Amino acid sequence: MPDTHGGSADAGTATGDIPRPDTSRPVAAPSEGGSLSAEARADERRFQLYTVAVLTFGLVVAGAVSAWLPFQGSVHLWWIGPLLALAFLGAEQLGVNVDVRSGISWTISFTEIPLVIGLLVAPFEVVLAAHVVAGVTTLLARRVTGRVLYNAGAFLLEVTSAFAVAGLVKQALGSVEDMPWLAALAGTLTAPLASTLLAMAAVRVLRRRMRVGTVVRLAGRILVVGFVNASVGLTGYLVISKTPEAWPIVLAVSLGLAALYWAYSDLLREQRDMEALTDVSLMVARSGQQAAARPAGKAGDVDVDVDIDVDEWTTIAERIRDQLAAARVVLRLRLDPEQPMRTVVVGDDLAAGYDTELDADDPLLRLPGAHVRHLRVTEANPQIRAALLRRGASEALVVPLRSANQLLGIVEAYDRLSRWRGFGKYDVQLLGTMASHLATALDNRRLLATLRHDAYHDPLTGLLNRPGFRQVAAEPLREHANSVVLRVDLDVFSTVSDALGYTWADRMLMAAGKRMRDTLGAGVPLARLEGASFAVLLADCDAERAQEIAQRLREQLSAPYPVDRLTVEANSVVGYVLTTAEENAERVDVDSLLQRADMAVRATRGGEEIKSYVPSMGQIFLRRFQMVTQFRQAIEEGQVTVHYQPKVTLPDKQVLGVEALVRWQHPEFGRVNPDEFVPAVEAAGLVGVLTSFVLDAALDRVRRWLDDGLRISVAVNLSVRNLADAEFPARVAEALERFGVPGELLTLELTESDVMQDPERALPILRELSDLGIELAVDDFGTGYSSLAYLRQLPVDQVKIDKSFVFGMGTDLGDLAVVRSIVELGHSLGLTVVAEGVEEDLARDQLEAMGCDVAQGYLISRPLSEDRLEAWLQARTARSLDPASEPVLTLLT
């Protein structure tokens, strides 16, 4: 007859037919003398009363049926009782376990076959004794001792109900001699139904629920299998009784039916095992996807999200428990090697006081390999026996979850919920395969979590990166009416990188990140954006507190950094932007806030290291953005022009050349200062376009002067980006050839800082330009950090004294001394010395007295457009008429 158990409809356990109480509080096994929880004790008392009621009712009903159907056997048939007992034992041993859906495990035990034959050939008392003896003996042999009395009462009621129904049918049919086959069939089908009703009543006693649909399907399966088994037994008996020599056919049919049952059970078991493997893998995968879909964090830094969600893993453990029909499943998981193992328990609770933490000395958890260990109290050594008893268990399956020799966790299953058997080879295989799938799924989840962590974190400092900050900051900005985004820039990073190398600069960045984290605390989102720039989100913060925190950050970051045996002095600037409730409610754009904070950082100058964003800053940057995007069009439309400022020799006042200076007359902004648009154009990578435009205009002007018989040179300013372009000398040569201008009439000016920024890289470019015959000049000399050694190596022809020194010569003896030194230095190196910013006669006279070669400034002329330059040349200069030399222009006094 079928034995049903498992899931929410357990009707059999490792200690009997009835499921143990399933609570979430620690419960000690009674055999260990531990104390049960209050709920568990109440369940145990109810079940004890139910056991007494079943056993008492079974004895009373058995006595009534025995009186109704008195013993009519013969002492010469004494062998029938033992033979039936052996038949019942054999039927139980040959039982087939079929695992079906919804956590229901269904055991086909074939006990209907000896029962139907017993109804036909033996008295009630003999069949009752044989069945009870066989059942109790099987339980004791398999050491299932916890529910023997209940099962004995169930055995009594099974046989008693079978004979009672058979007797009623027999009377209804009017047969008084032998029991007809119909009565035997009806009685046989009654026995498993009675057993199932007792189990369902036990479920109610233990306050466990079972759906009506499940009960109906279960009863239907029981009747079908019972009918088939009873029909085989009844048919075999009738055939053999009429034709004794037909017993081989009956045996063959019985063996075929058993084989069919086993094949069907294997098919269903494989199907359900595959479903269980798929379910467990999908549960872990969904758990990882849900973790990945969660926000990176509400505050602070985002760690690798491999933490154990108890609810999710409890569901997975319950699925494993249902599949194995185990009384208890324990999952021990450690996805992060730096964290302790987390333990999830489903089913029967662990013994009170039992430590769920991983114990290296626990004999059950010594798992050198990756195989399933099947441990039993009766077969184990004393240490394993003691470990099982501490857990209140008699049997266990234990398997590690490993990936690349790393222990990710352990799965433990205890005590199969079955009346007749414990864990078998199929359970061992299933758990091993499931552990392999689970370990792979866990490893994949850990890998995805690591990838997600790396995607949102800076690998150097461990802080958030820009995408991580964007994700973390979005929710707090929506939730809080007033928040602040700070941007902090260290201004010595590039210097340290150049002087000491990137290794030391990286160490300084890590130290800076740690100082900021210590200052802000663990709950404040902090990110390294790029280079030496950091971002901070202060949720629910006002301007006063933002200013205070910015000041504290500056103080911490400005403290000296010990780098190896050196101490690096540092400075930092902070820009911040305040948000409003209206902005947060409308649309939270973290990138826009970072951009505004960056504008505030750029606005810090003149000793003001902390700056709050104001809308006018946005207008400035918007204006620069518009200029950069409109620059090409401005050149094509003639908005950008070239002006020229004359240079004259001292003391003979001959016009030696002009300097080409770019000007932009914007239709919206008016005249734009070159100091504003040139750096923006240069930063946008358009300096090549600008240089080519000025160079072409200047060479065209020189060509026209040559056509007029004048040799006037032109000077064009270069950018440091031109010196990084290996193709630049070739483009200059092409322009000279295109306009037919000799190289000596072109002067290229570079600032002292640009030349010295990377002299090793600039030197080959400058030499190529010098080989073209081009004059090279160092502009703004005296304001940078020139190295005389490099200055001697560079193919420089001119040095231009910065106008700031020329302006101060008349009032500052220091400036006068600097100018005199530059003139003497230039001459000692064989260079032409040009003075910029000559605006007074006194300055001109002083320069002339020092021996300065060339003067340029407002005293001579302002920068002029091409038309005005021609008018100036006609009005202020005189052309020499000496036929023995080339015509020159001399400035009129």
TrEMBL record:
Pfam families: EAL, GAF, GGDEF
Xref: SUPFAM superfamilies: EAL domain-like, GAF domain-like, Nucleotide cyclase
Gene3D superfamilies hit by this protein: 3.30.450.40, 3.30.70.270, EAL domain
Transmembrane regions: 47-69, 76-96, 116-141, 148-169, 181-206, 218-240
A GO MF term: cyclic-guanylate-specific phosphodiesterase activity
Keywords for this protein: Membrane, Transmembrane, Transmembrane helix
Coiled coil spans: none
Biased composition (Low complexity): 1-17
Residue ranges occupied by any EAL domain in the UniProt entry: 624-877
NCBIfam families cross-referenced by the UniProt entry: GGDEF
The name this protein goes by in its record: Diguanylate cyclase (GGDEF) domain-containing protein
Lineage, uppermost ranks: Bacteria, Bacillati, Actinomycetota, Actinomycetes, Pseudonocardiales
